[in-house]
Amino acid sequence: xxxxxxxxxxxxxxxxxxxxxxxxxxxxxxxxxxxxxxxxxxxxxxxxxxxxxxxxxxxxxxxxxxxxxxxxxxxxxxxxxxxxxxxxxxxxxxxxxxxxxxxxxxxxxxxxxxxxxxxxxxxxxxxxxxxxxxxxxxxxxxxxxxxxxxxxxxxxxxxxxxxxxxxxxxxx
Amino acid sequence: xxxxxxxxxxxxxxxxxxxxxxxxxxxxxxxxxxxxxxxxxxxxxxxxxxxxxxxxxxxxxxxxxxxxxxxxxxxxxxxxxxxxxxxxxxxxxxxxxxxxxxxxxxxxxxxxxxxxxxxxxxxxxxxxxxxxxxxxxxxxxxxxxxxxxxxxxxxxxxxxxxxxxxxxxxxxxxxxxxxxxxxxxxxxxxxxxxxxxxxxxxxxxxxxxxxxxxxxxxxxxxxxxxxxxxxxxxxxxxxxxxxxxxxxxxxxxxxxxxxxxxxxxxxxxxxxxxxxxxxxxxxxxxxxxxxxxxxxxxxxxxxxxxxxxxxxxxxxxxxxxxxxxxxxxxxxxxxxxxxxxxxxxxxxxxxxxxxxxxxxxxxxxxxxxxxxxxxxxxxxxxxxxxxxxxxxxxxxxxxxxxxxxxxxxxxxxxxxxxxxxxxxxxxxxxxxxxxxxxxxxxxxxxxxxxxxxxxxxxxxxxxxxxxxxxxxxxxxxxxxxxxxxxxxxxxxxxxxxxxxxxxxxxxxxxxxxxx
Lengths: 172, 515
Known about the structure:
The complex is a heterodimer. By secondary structure, chain A is mainly alpha-helical. Chain A has helices at 16-41, 54-76, 88-127, 133-154; strands spanning 12-15, 45-46, 49-50, 84-87. In chain A, helix 3 (88-127) crosses helix 4. Chain A is flat, with a radius of gyration of 24 Å. Residues 1-7 of chain A have low confidence and may be disordered. Chain B is an all-alpha fold. Chains A and B meet through helix 1, strand 3, helix 2, helix 3 and helix 4 of A and helix 8, helix 9, helix 18, helix 19 and helix 20 of B.
């Protein structure tokens, strides 16, 4: 399959049915957890009607049964999808967004939404977009300025300033 | 005609300078959302929902529904100019819309798309005006079993009408219900599925899920594909618009047919995406020029756009009349109603007349405003699309993070959003549909409440779901929908009996019982 795209330089990492089976397995476990937890909460009939786990019990059952069915289809089905799920080049591109995004959320906790967002946008543009420092910082500041006006001033929705609150100097 | 009077009252409610202004803002934001990759109607409305908390419910819903109309319009711009459907329901528009643009008929294609959207929406709104009050009046007689059977029908139709594996639809739906169950049990006050985590007591907010699944997931998908924009420039001069408008009445039959397909798919939770494909397919079969579809036929733009907009609009009918949304975006709007302290459902027509008729009136006006805005601002939005993805992507992630944070002012929710993003990306890649999941998170508590009330009144006897002809027929219909994948397989076997062995020509007994 991957030969059809000569420009995609990546090697195939895994096939779709393998990923399907892995996700189905995880969700099968989740379904069993829901069933067990619902039974603990009371999945039957209590003195004043159906217990707290009455409805979730059946939900857990549906999760478990359908993920088991998907697992079987993905592993042994006749028409299981053997197409490449992702190749190394694609995986690299996805991770180049996902990992910085995780770092960004971590930074939000410390420095607040405004500072973290500005740094994130600027770095994203410099590293992935290969823009000049000047241009990147200008865009980052402009976007954050606009957000600040929109949220803090126009709609009066204060955003998170972080545990370190680096913007406290600006407080009136 | 009570409805006309009520509608006029609705116009009186919304025709204030503030509301008209909000309409324009909503449409522009909506088109922006529709144009930008990674932002769709559902998560766009979810992100902007917290901004409306300080408004009156009527103003808020006007702005939010206009964002919705705008997003429906916006999807067409990217499809035609760049061959990139901004929304899933505009995929079918690319088939003929982009070839038209390549032939230098971009203006004509855009005018056709916008006008068709407008017509589809208009027919659907007229239908809502006259049908919604009737449905609501009828639904006032509903008890808990009836409501649960309607919920059941909603979810079972996903299974019956979905294209992929029915198990995947079931799984997605049940996961949504399980996520909705996390937190405090509304009936007994017991903590459920929190596993001792204080932060989980809040439960999973559907807004966070929507922003993650549709926003972050979409970004990851676009990134994987290595998105690149290269498209036609667009100028809409009034002459082209007028010329196109002169041709369009010739397609009146396509308009009518596509509107009906859209309305049907919108009310049943099929949604705008299958509606647009189905309408395109039907038009291709029934048109004299069917063989030329895909090479830049005007009718190939008319059909999907009319149906998508009719479906998107009529998805609001069950939301207003029954409190059951027909699409993820309608589900987000419904969540908004709950946040503003309104109880969605048939009682809205009795208790919140101003609100309901204001909303319906805003559908008429919003679409007129929408048509004006999109016809006049296409070059602007086309220019936005030329901004490189390495600038747009981080900005969209930042906007999503802010949207997730503002729901509960909790940083942990941003983590959840990121998690939902990964889930959305993986699910999209292995064809697990996301709409049932979102709808189940929104409706989870309400569906469970009505189920428990029904069980309580019958002392646990499931027979109450067939206690009277009304609830019985809805429940039966729901089960038919649920088993439809099996039934249709059986029917197909019956119609074309494969001669497996020459001595066994009769189909099995199970197959015959199916009919």
